[in-house]
Amino acid sequence: MNILFLNEMDVSPMRGGIDQITLTLGRYFEKRGHHCFLAYGEESSLPTAFPAEVKMRYEYGKEKEQFAQWISEKNIDIIVSKLGDIGPKKRLLPIIREVTRGTRTKVVACLHAMPGEELIGNSIPNSFYRLLHEKDRKSSLKDIALEIIPTSWFQFFFHKKLRNRYRVLYDNADKVVLLSTAFNDRFAELGDLEIDDKFAAINSALTFDEFLPESELAKKQKEVMILARMDEKPKRISSALKIWRKVNQSGKYDDWKLTIVGGGRDLSYFQKMAKRLKLKNISFEGRQEDALRYYRRSSIFMMTSRYEGWGLTLTESQQNGVVPIAFYSYASLPEIIDDGHNGFIVRDGDINAYYERLSWLMDHPDERKAMALEAISTSPRFMAEVIGEKWLTLFSDTLKQLATDMPAE
Question: Of the candidates 120, 118, 106, 96, which has an alpha carbon nearest to the alpha carbon of residue 166?
Fold first, then answer.
């Protein structure tokens, strides 16, 4: 098959989960003998990964002609849309639908997010900080409103706008792929849709090919790690800092440290917050190309996200024997963490309960090792080979359906 990935920007493994998954799948498809291409709209300031000879940049206003040409020249079978922002989706997907209508090329639209996350606000302190330090004041004011006003009110008053946001995926694709079947009902509710055979669910594939050997667990340090984009709205790093303050205040864990890896718009906000809270044994590492070395040496992984689509860093931590703790803030989480066995799930927003789980893991090295081993042993279900084959089966079945549906000449 000839597979074309459609992205907003050139793919960089340092940007986040969507790009990392695109790269992982692309490599696996190539390994299986398929040919992958990338169409993107903007250059990236970060190191990119797709080979130059398979990349094509689309230009605003010229997309229809360009995609028609690329589909024909490259004999594209499947277009995988990984557009994240609603703007590009709303503009590009109808163009792609028009260009592919009546052809053998099929369109698969992916939602690498939690349906309804646009109805979730941001913390008031961070929103005010952004109002003072950033030019985009409109989004911060909206986040404050979303934080104060009940979600149901927004869903009622902006019903039509929300419907259009989700229908643009459904109406302009042959398949809509979510990260979990747990998201189906919410997607259908927001889009005024019925669940049908156009829906599919495929989890995210593991980033790394290797799993930490049991012998390496002995080399683990007394280190807690966070790997995330430094963006308070989805990642809620402020909660992690408040939890770490409890660790410091206990006076019991001065031999443990917290390492925070990642860059983003709120990095300076978190650094100032850590200073204000007088946190000890904490390090902000910034964006790193080699995240694996942090996983290899750390013992516990913290995720305090307000929402996620999947949580790729959770499965990355598990395959490296880093026991994860996460707030139950999104529906797909139980597919990753089996609470009490390969990690802990904490009631959303309960900082005290989170601290109790974290301190328990620090206090019980033998039990922590057992959970790390369980995390490693359950990780292969998300291997690229497993997830990649699910995608290829989806592509194959979709193309077969096309052959059945198209009228004979």
Answer: 118
